[in-house]
Amino acid sequence: MIKAVRGFKDVLPEDTVYWRYLEEEARTLFESFGFREIRIPVLEKLELFQRGIGSTTDIVEKEMYVFEDRNGELLALRPEATAGVARAFIENSLHMKDPVNKYYFFGPMFRHERPQAGRLRQFHQLNVEAYGVKSPSLDAEIMAMLHMLTQKLKIDDALHLEINHIGCPQCRPIYRDILINFLNNQKEKLCKDCKRRLEKNPLRVLDCKKEGCKNIASQAPQIIDYLCDQCKDYFDKTLDYLAVSEVPFVINPMIVRGLDYYTGVVFELTTDELGAQNAVAAGGRYDNLMKELGGPDIPGVGFAIGVERTVALMKKRYTLEEETPLFFFAVMGEEAKRVALPLALKLRQEGVKCEMEHSDKSLKSQMRKANKLKVRFTVIVGEDEVRKGVLTVRDMEEKKQFEIQAQISELLKLAEAAR
Ligand SMILES: [Zn+2]
Ligand SMILES: [Zn+2]
Prior knowledge:
Oligomer: single chain
Strand order of the largest sheet: 1-5-6-11-10-9-7-8
Strand content: 15-25%
Mean pLDDT: 94
Shape: elongated
Bound molecules: zinc ion
Structural class: alpha+beta
CATH architecture of the largest domain: 2-Layer Sandwich
CATH superfamily of the largest domain: Bira Bifunctional Protein, Domain 2
CATH class of the largest domain: Alpha Beta
Number of helices: 16
């Protein structure tokens, strides 16, 4: 028995109904905001992520699926979408072609994380990216869109929008030095990972999940107090736009995001309902990413929503079921199949969902199947019906049985009445 790779999971039909609902709601909403769909490869050159996400981040250092292909080229399965979308943007000169550079994107991401902690190695995201403008009103609009999606999915009661500002190339280095200084005095109390992060990526210490580090982080100097005038003004305006848009939020100075490309406003959508995995969506500004990747100096903002976590919240709140077929054709014998098959095909052509039995089981067993399928009408076709040119229809809801002519128009009348 060959099993799936550890951390990789099948999504079965009883779950895909939630996935599809989420995707359809997201698609409709994002497009109403002017976002357009982009699709990018799952595989990129390793260098893209090293330069885009940062070679000292946990993702790039420890979690990527990296391998050499048959030509000796170093490749990686994408661990997130933003670097790839930025690459596509530069490569296709989208800033020259499109008047509005707003894209959304659905797809799987890959990280070699610990499955024992309930983490998946292939997980899925909905991504949104807007390039070309740096403006507090755009940032607020994007967060409002995220909030609106959670309202449409009826999970907004489970979520908090937490927001922070992590400075710019002028003010962040000053804060960074102050933070390193503070953390150095507490170094012995930090966990192993944070000791390592201290020099390379000290902001990461602030969102370490270990108790000891959390304690230290809670007393650490906060970036908000060290923002330059420009950053402070930008942050204030963003918060004001959120307030007038009636998007609820809290400021959390501990939100720093783990990727190097973030600058300025960052945010997370968190929940208390999923244990340690509390971030359902996350995003922020990445104004230097394009330039880092050798492209034009174009700012960007966006977010990613975790599909598995969002679906978990949806399932806690409501049940979605697949559409049941309207008709089930119970057929006895080959002549009956010759009558039923073209009728079933025509129904589907008209968009009516139906199911036809192909095994040669007894009528009793076919009726059991019709019950299990929860169809409205079972259409029985046996020798008698074939001879008389009729169909016996059992209305499973009204619990009555009648005959109709074996014609598609008769079946469509029933379908119409059942709508
Ligand atoms: Zn600044
Ligand atoms: Zn730590």
